[in-house]
Design brief:
The chain has 191 residues and is an alpha+beta fold. The protein has one domain: Cytidine Deaminase, domain 2, CATH 3.40.140.10. It is built from four helices and seven strands; from the N terminus they run E-H-E-H-E-E-H-E-H-E-E. Helix 3 runs parallel beside helix 4. The protein binds zinc ion. The site of zinc ion has 6 residues, from helix 4.
Length: 191
């Protein structure tokens, strides 16, 4: 592992981070102004440093890019989710001429996992992307905001941290819970 970014304290419902954002806001109301820094960490690995299981999941995400339908963006994205029952389910981005009608690889994968195995925890999701050739992106590809929200809901539903592996040819970023990808997140506790 090469890099670990850590800031200060924030909330992560299903991780060791315990202070909720709402309580932090309420606590700080009495102050005129305060800067809050989320406690976020990303772990950067070389592909070879990962466990065989993680490498297999990334390889499945890379393979899934070849099932992508991306005639508009020419950006082929694949995702692979490892479930608690040992299953690996994959998905890819599926575009549409009516642009909002398409969906991303992450959501294709999670909706498939959650609808096929509704009671099984999704433990890890790996994401890889390439352009219209066989060359994968040099840097890790991050999920879009909408996918982060669906990842958050999956984690919330599973009551277990959903780990994410973002593949790049030059390194793999590991994020151990979705709140680290989506600070100030909206979830059921906000309602
Ligand atoms: Zn997305």
């Amino acid at each position: 592992m090469r890099i670990l970014f850590i800031f200060s304290t924030f909330s992560c419902k299903y991780s060791k981070k315990s202070i909720s954002f709402v309580s932090l806001l309420l606590e700080t109301k009495k102050y005129a102004m305060k800067t809050l820094k989320p406690d976020i960490s990303f772990h950067l690995y070389d592909y070879e440093e990962l466990s065989e299981e993680d490498r297999q999941l990334i390889d499945a995400a890379k393979k899934a890019t070849y099932q992508s339908y991306a005639p508009y963006s020419h950006f082929m994205v694949g995702a692979a989710a490892k479930l608690a029952n040992g299953e690996i389910v994959c998905g890819s981005n599926q575009e549409n001429a009516a642009y909002p009608s398409g969906t991303c690889a992450e959501r294709t994968t999670l909706f498939y996992a959650n609808s096929t195995y509704p009671d099984v925890v999704v433990e890890t999701i790996a994401i890889a992307a390439r352009h219209n050739n066989d060359e994968f992106t040099p840097h890790p590809t991050a999920p879009c905001g909408a996918c982060r929200q669906v990842m958050l809901e999956t984690q919330w539903r599973n009551k277990k941290p959903l780990r994410t592996l973002l593949y790049g040819e030059e390194g793999v970023l590991e994020v151990t819970c979705v709140e680290d990808l989506l600070p100030l997140c909206f979830n059921a506790s906000c309602m």
